[in-house]
Amino acid sequence: EYIKSRLFEMELATGTTTQSWMRMFTTNIVSYNNSQLVLRRDPSRSSGRSIRIYGKELQPIAGIFVPDPTTMEVSVDKFGTIMSWRQKINSSSGADSGIKTFDSIDVIHCTMDKKAGYSYGTPYILPVLDDVRALRRLEEIAMILASKEAFTLYHYKVGTEDKPAEIYEGGGNEVDSVASGVTTMPLQGVVVTSERHEVKLISRESASMDLVPYLEYFEKRVLAGLRLSPLDLGRANSANKGSATNINKSLQDAAKDYQQVVSDCITFYLFLPLLLEGGFDVDHTNMVWLKFNTIDKEEERAEQNHGSQLCLNNQISCTEFREKFMKLPPMTEEQKSDTIREADAEVDERLAKATAAAKTATNKSTVANKTKPKNQHGAKTKSKVKANDCIAIIDPI
Questions:
Q1: Strand extents, DSSP E, the chain
Q2: d(CA 119, CA 191)
Q3: What is the model's pLDDT at position 245?
Q4: Tens digit of each residue's pLDDT (9 = 90 or more) over 330-340
Q5: How far is CA 25 from the centre of its chain?
Q6: Among candidates 291, 257, 256, which has minimal Cα distance to 271?
Q7: Could you tell me how far CA 204 lies from the centroid of its own chain?
Q8: Residue 245 burial (CB < 10 Å; 0-12/13-18/19+)?
Q9: What is the pTM of this model?
């Protein structure tokens, strides 16, 4: 609740929602494998208190901003430890429009696939860029060939070796005459010639090289480098539900890697300082973590069903089932009293009381009916004279 209140406080102070800067932060780390958060400290705009960490007195965090990773430069010492950050923004004309320096404690740097000895992570798309460029060049060539093949090329032969093309008296010739006629012919026109003329379509006979195999090859290389499959692009082909799940698994695993990196970075470098500013004694039992929802819902349900079976067979306790399979804390006494089992027990208890009361009323009615029978003439007290006992009713003389 304290973390939520502090994040809401920053939203009001900066005008940027938590979801907004979180989305920009995640987009940068997916695009560049590097992302930064700049912390703005101001005690007058924050409800937190100053803390002392790493030998420095730090004012409370009042705002969070996401810079452009391509404008950030880092300064390190001889051991590779980050000392400070500098943001250098260039204008559209190429001139420097501004330089701002930040202390290392005021910048949260999240990296993915960072090599030892380096300050920045290595984007996974770097080895794929050459394949992307090659695929793009092939696509341009394919467009040029398609534009050429769209207009058919004919070869019109005039004359033969025995009877070559004629030359007219006025200076013209038969070739120019035929060319003029073909050029002015309508699109749906018909050419009628003698045996000395031959029309041949050569654009189909001498077709250009087929680029489809090359396009498919480089496209597959690009998709493999981007950790994508044709199914991720909406190309189902002949994939069924089972194969589609397996194909999509690699993309889900890649997303989980990013989730883990973002979760650790936000938890330890943002939530932990905020808790210390709130005066909390933080340890592993009360740490506030950033958690993402499960991507594969079917896998989650299968895991939960497995844990449920273990709990029903007394292999694990209910607390272990909630913590390991449901990712939930143990139930409080109030929560336990609000479960279906407790509600059923309460209903069973009321039914048992009602059944006992009805049974008691029935027994009383049976006893009353025996001592005071009732018929169509009403009820009267049962006589103490036994049936067919006439001796008892004879008056003695």
A1: 34-41, 51-53, 56-58, 61-65, 72-76, 82-90, 96-103, 107-111, 154-158, 197-201, 374-375, 378-379
A2: 74
A3: 62
A4: 888 888 888 88
A5: 15
A6: 291
A7: 48
A8: middle
A9: 0.65
